[in-house]
Amino acid sequence: MMQRLKDQVAIVTGGASGIGGATCRRLAEDGARVLVADIDMTAAEANAAKIREAGGIADVMRADVGSHDDIRGMVQAAVDRWGRLDILVNNAYSPAHGAGGSALDVTEEAWDAGMSVLVKSIFLATKYAVPEMRKNGGGNIINIASVHGLLMAPERLVYEAGKSAVIGITKQMATDFGPMGIRVNAICPGHIVTERLQEQWDDNPSGLKFFEDQYPLRKVGRPVDIGNAIAFLCSDDASFITGHALVVDGGLTVQLQEDFGVRQARYLEQNPGTQMPY
User: Fold this and answer.
1) 272 in a domain, yes or no?
2) What is the DSSP letter of 148?
3) Residues with catalytic annotation?
4) Which of 155, 179, 193 is nearest to 243 (CA)?
5) Which domain holds residue 31?
6) Number of compact structural domains in the chain
């Protein structure tokens, strides 16, 4: 494979596993030197080892994106290690920061904690990354949003608001930093079966089949699907794309909802005993 990102330096938050883990491996495969930033150092070291075993270059750093000092420190660490910064992937997220409930239920503390990780972390990481990218004449920032930033689910105020905001700030930042040669894009994944979610589906295979049937492609996504999209957006093949929220969801969000609901009802009739995903 031609290394489209040869000698570029990338930071991936939440880079130990899941979407972040696959993204680290994919960027390294394309020649980037990758800083795996995560709070789980055991998993981060394991992912970096995979990259090195495959011939790539990676280092690790403990970074909690809820901490201003950690965010500033991870940018400095990448620059100190490799002398530059070209790519920032704002991916880190924990289900603990997406408190369930409506505006009647969510506490102010839960709102603040969720917004700190889902939105504020992107603002801060960008604040410190852009000056370094500008020294190189440009760069790429990829923000991980969600189909939940486009279509709303009940009782998910914090997560839906946060992911909607990610799409908005992506577009705004693209207008600010485009003149500097910095492209800013977002990815809106559908259901991605990470390592953690695979354990859940192993216990409920009929629920996974029901979930897969919701997608026009009749399958859910894998972390590598998002990693591939990120690598594309960071490459020169996407040099005229900025401010875009790329939906990578197997067609989930293009369906007419009335037809979709009827099809799902028929599926349950034809597959009695299906265990619901939630």
Assistant:
1) no
2) G
3) 159
4) 179
5) 9-197+220-253
6) 1
Q: Give dist(CA 201, CA 103) in Å, integer.
A: 30
Over residues 40-67, the pLDDT tens digits come to 999 999 999 999 999 999 999 999 999 9
> Rounded to whole angstroms, how far apart are CA atoms 114 and 166?
13
182 in any annotated domain? yes
Tokens representing residue 44 in the block: 């981060």
The half-sphere exposure of 66 on its side-chain side, counting CA atoms within 13 A, is: 12
Specify if 3 maps to a domain.
Answer: no
Place of tokens 């990120």: 230
Residue 269, in any domain of the structure: no
Beta strands in 39-138 (DSSP E): 57-62, 87-90
Q: What's 76's domain CATH number?
A: 3.40.50.720
Nearest to 235 by CA among 138, 143, 130, 126: 138
Tens of pLDDT, residue by residue over 3-44, are 899 999 999 999 999 999 999 999 999 999 999 999 999 999
- To 10 degrees, the CA torsion angle through 23, 29, 31, 33? 50
What does the alpha-carbon distance between residue 37 and residue 236 come to, in Å, rounded to a whole number?
Answer: 25
CA distances from 12 to 60, 143, 187, 203, 262 (A): 10, 10, 14, 30, 40
pLDDT tens, position by position, 193-250 = 988 888 888 888 998 998 899 999 999 999 999 999 999 999 999 999 999 999 999 9
Q: Rounded to 5 degrees, what are φ and ψ at 48?
A: -60, -35
- Phi/psi for 215 (5° steps) reads -100, 135
Residue 72's Cβ-count burial label (10 Å; 0-12, 13-18, 19+) is middle
